Each structure stands twice: as structure tokens, then as C-alpha cells.
Amino acid sequence: MASLRPKSLQTILPKNSGRDMFGHISVRHQGGRQKRFYRVIDWKRDKDGISASVVAIEYDPNRSADVALLSYKDGEKRYILAPVGLEVGATVQSGTDIEAKPGNSLRLRDIPVGTLIHNIEIKPGRGGQMVRSAGNAAVLLSKDGQTVQIKLPSGEVRFFSSLVRATVGQIGNIDWKNRVIGLAGNARHMGRRPTVRGVAQNPRSHPHGGGEGKSGIGMKSPKSPWGKRTLGKRTRKRRKYSDSIIVKRRK
User: Fold this and answer.
1) Do the Cβ atoms of 81 and 69 come closer than 8 Å?
2) What is the CATH number of the domain that holds 51?
3) pTM surpassing 0.85?
């Protein structure tokens, strides 16, 4: 399918191997991955009223979900996330007054209650930012004027504007979590370097290190590299901007 992919929709994804601008390791256990092309995904789905046919369903090494290559009637090609049930030759569309079938993009006010959706915008016109990984789907629970209640995959229920867009359907590649890497070399090609347990290191290298024999971590709770407790510590801001739109927390 490489011949079908326009060069305008792919670019080399640069490697940083977990290094910062000074070349120092800022994220451990990264490096050495295979060269990748980044696929430019159409998160906004703003070509309203122009139908597109699915040319190919492709593997994307940069995300857990598969991607679908669309060819619009005006000749333009774009990538979208491939939902369950979308096949080569199918027709998808975005806009208003269209059927709420997998792959179509509509405003929340035009989607029936109880529909599975993904690629949800947070603000109108910004593009999809929520529910974008393989196998995930949110459920449209209710509509009330200019607001809509949606249950997210985490179990959280929150308000959204009825003007934001979402794509109908559950994201495909559901069995992604069941994949077995199998070989250490496969992990290295994915950019994962070996991970050493903190308790096996010396105290200078890791907060869990040191001690005679198998002494455990030597503290009541694990700590971050900056000394902050991490076991059960809540990291969400107490007064976050989204508190007012959350109906039910995931916990």
C-alpha cells in the first residue's frame, strides 16, 4: 500500500532517544528505534459535503489504532482513524444531515443518543483530542440544549458543547492490547531500551537503591526523582478548569 500513500501525508519522524536539548537523558529506557514515517492524520474532518471512499486500511507504527486512507471526490487524500466495520471501498462523509454510521463525522447535536463515538473535540474547530486509541469508544448519554453528556472510556461522565465534532463508531484494532512482543529485539526496534529495577541500583542512581541484601525500597511509599510520594498521591489540580463540566469522576 506504500504506492497509494501521497508524500504530502508522510514525513520522517525524528528520533531524540529520550535526550533533551543538551543531549542529556531526560526520559530513561528510550533509544535505538527503527526509522519511522509519521502519517498526518485529519483530526478536524472539515471537508463537509464531500464524500470520500476508503482506499486502504493501513498499519501506523506511531499509534495503537490502524488508519484509513480516504480519497475525496475532489482528488484530495487524507488519513483518519479506522473504526470497527470500516472496509476498503466504503464511503464516508462529514457535515450535517448525514447518516450516523462508522467513519462519518458529525456535530454532537446531530448524533443519536446511545451512539458509540470517538475522536471527540474539546472546543469547536480545534480537532479531535479525546478517545483516539485502539479499541476505545465513548457513549453519547443525553442532550440538553447546547450541552451533551458523554461517558468516556474511563467511566467519567462530562459535559460537551453540542457544536463540537465527533466521529461515529468504535476505534478498530481492538486486540492491540493482547499483542505479544515475543522477542527483545522487537522491543528494541520499537525504541524500548532495557529497564533495570530501582531496588537493584545504588542509592545515587535511584531512590529505591541501596541497602544490604534484598531490603526493598526502604520507605513507606515510593518517591519520584524529586522526592515526591507516588503511592496513591493525587496529582490532579484541586481547582482545574474542567471541574465544572465533569458530572461523574472516573474514581
Assistant:
1) no
2) 2.40.50.140
3) yes
